[in-house]
């Protein structure tokens, strides 16, 4: 644990000079990293696949999203971070500046499901904002973050500016004791523990947590596309995505047709592990996690659920394969309908109206992402606005992750704070306000002190009333 304190200390030393560089100087390193990561894409994809068992496509999605994050903040970050003039305390006589200062050392504690994306992808805006970063990858996936560090160092980043702490929950908890900001991505239960630890130290934090993401399909929705969308939303990354679709509410008139479409297409998906791009669904992370997901499916079936596709373990393909699974007639109170499964499993529920769909979608402790499919934009938008979630994809499922100009994150037990967009870089800074008076006689500070008569006080109140009437001055 002394090692972690030492890493943070070295990072703190290195951050001083880094924070003083211009955005462009820091950006040059990230630009080189972007190009290097793409040039070495085979090595990056190999590292991701070798420690997760995911498909080559899912590994590519990580790399492409990291590259997109880098390009987005290289293009916009300087503007987001730039000091901005604000209205002064007294118009014309004073002026105000809003600046953004780096926290210092940012600790990023990340899970195993996107080990390159969630480590390096979140480190990029933190570094661009002038922080040093210490990454704590999952102990199941330590490799991709290390490769990210190597590529950043080859791009010119000083080794002390990006430290890596290996280990499990204890290492993460120790990191929280030393850093100036914590960005945690993981389960809601551990997010709560991290929040308590950060509160003890009064350091700021963000939490990107779990989800039980709903999809709503109205009776006039394009069914073929919705079925394709569901396959991507539920089975990408073997369902181990925080924004994966796990429950679908389908209007009754189209339920049977949609269920058949989804079942047929799911059964046709190609499972396996290969370095080629022709595999649809890869392995799950670990045999123990696969067993847990299989037990959840079996319990649902014992409770009366019907299997429309999948539902079997596939030891012939590897130790952690579970077939992409589609269920119906799932008890709405069963764990599979309520808790995050985090595997390739989706339940279809029949609903009699869009109101019922919205009510059921919102009946969850989570509020991360949702998907709505409808024939027209207006009803889909109306539903989107009623959903208690951080993001809604209309006629899509996972698109939010690549919509970099939109903040992404959850409400309820799905998190606090946002990545991406302006929020995703400003969270790594503290706002600093600077107010300046143009005249040097201490006028503003002593103004109230000069009010020594009723007449002056009345004149002052008159002035305040007058300001109220001048447009733009409140
Ligand atoms: P996890 O909570 O078990 O672990 C996440 C990380 O936190 C790991 O590095 C772990 O070692 C560390 N950790 C665990 N306990 C800790 C503690 N008390 N203090 C400090 N660090 C601690 O999560 P997981 O099983 O690795 O990942 C799956 C979860 O992550 C799912 O719930 C998924 O929804 C969530 N997730 C959320 C997002 C998002 O953006 N909202 C993205 C990916 C994954």
| Number of distinct helices | 17
Order of strands, widest sheet = 10-11-12-9-8-14-15
What small molecules accompany the polymer chains? nicotinamide-adenine-dinucleotide
Query: Please, what is the average pLDDT?
Result: 96
- % residues in beta strands: 15-25%
Structural class label: alpha/beta
What is the makeup of the main sheet? 7 strands, mixed
Radius of gyration from CA coordinates = 26 Å
General description of the model:
By secondary structure, this protein is α/β, with parallel strands linked by helices. Helix content is 45%, strand content 18%. It has helices at residues 2-20, 23-39, 41-52, 56-81, 117-128, 143-154, 169-176, 188-201, 223-235, 252-267, 287-302, 335-338, 354-362, 377-386, 421-426, 443-447, 454-469; strands at residues 84-86, 94-102, 105-109, 132-136, 162-164, 181-185, 205-208, 213-217, 245-251, 306-309, 325-328, 345-351, 366-367, 369-373, 391-394, 411-412, 415-416, 429-437. The strands form four sheets. It has a seven-stranded mixed β-sheet, with helices on both faces. The longest helix is centred in the first third of the chain and has 26 residues, at 56-81.
């Amino acid at each position: 644990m002394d090692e972690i304190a030492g890493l943070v200390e070295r990072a703190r030393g290195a951050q001083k000079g880094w924070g003083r560089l211009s955005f462009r100087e820091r950006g040059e390193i990230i630009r080189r990293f972007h190009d290097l990561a793409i040039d070495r894409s085979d090595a990056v994809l190999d590292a991701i696949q070798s420690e997760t068992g995911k498909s080559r496509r899912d590994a590519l999605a990580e790399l492409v999203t990291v590259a997109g994050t880098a390009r987005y903040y290289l293009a916009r970050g300087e503007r987001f971070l730039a000091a901005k003039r604000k209205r002064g305390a007294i118009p014309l006589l004073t002026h105000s500046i809003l600046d953004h200062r780096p926290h210092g050392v940012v600790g990023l504690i990340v899970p195993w499901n996107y080990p390159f994306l969630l480590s390096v992808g979140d480190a990029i805006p933190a570094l661009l904002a002038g922080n040093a970063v210490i990454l704590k990858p999952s102990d199941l996936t330590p490799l991709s973050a290390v490769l990210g560090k190597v590529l950043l160092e080859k791009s010119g980043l000083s080794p002390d500016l990006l430290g890596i702490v290996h280990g499990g929950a204890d290492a993460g908890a120790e990191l929280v004791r030393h850093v100036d900001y914590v960005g945690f991505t993981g389960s809601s239960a551990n997010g709560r523990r991290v929040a308590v630890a950060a509160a003890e130290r009064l350091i700021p934090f963000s939490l990107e947590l779990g989800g039980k993401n709903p999809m709503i399909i109205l009776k006039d929705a394009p069914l073929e596309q919705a079925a394709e969308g569901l396959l991507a939303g539920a089975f990408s990354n073997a369902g181990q995505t925080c924004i994966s679709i796990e429950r679908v509410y389908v209007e009754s008139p189209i339920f049977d047709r949609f269920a058949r479409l989804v079942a047929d297409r799911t059964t046709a998906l190609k499972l396996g592990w290969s370095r080629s791009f022709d595999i649809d669904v890869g392995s799950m992370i670990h045999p123990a996690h696969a067993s847990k997901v299989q037990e959840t499916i079996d319990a649902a079936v014992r409770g009366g659920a019907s299997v429309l596709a999948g539902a079997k373990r596939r030891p012939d393909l590897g130790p952690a394969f579970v077939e992409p699974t589609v269920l119906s007639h799932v008890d709405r109170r069963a764990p599979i309908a309520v808790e995050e499964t985090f595997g390739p499993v989706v339940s279809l529920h029949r609903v009699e109206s869009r109101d019922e769909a919205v009510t059921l979608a919102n009946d969850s402790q989570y509020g991360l992402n949702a998907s709505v499919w409808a024939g027209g934009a207006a009803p889909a938008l109306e539903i989107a606005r009623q959903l208690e979630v951080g993001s809604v994809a209309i006629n899509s499922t996972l698109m939010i992750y690549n919509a970099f100009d939109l903040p992404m994150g959850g409400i309820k037990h799905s998190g606090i704070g946002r990545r991406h967009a302006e929020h995703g870089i400003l969270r790594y800074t503290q706002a600093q306000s600077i107010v300046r008076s143009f005249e040097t006689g201490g006028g503003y500070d002593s103004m109230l002190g000069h009010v020594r008569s009723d007449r002056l006080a009345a004149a002052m109140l008159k002035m305040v009333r007058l300001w109220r009437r001048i447009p733009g001055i409140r």
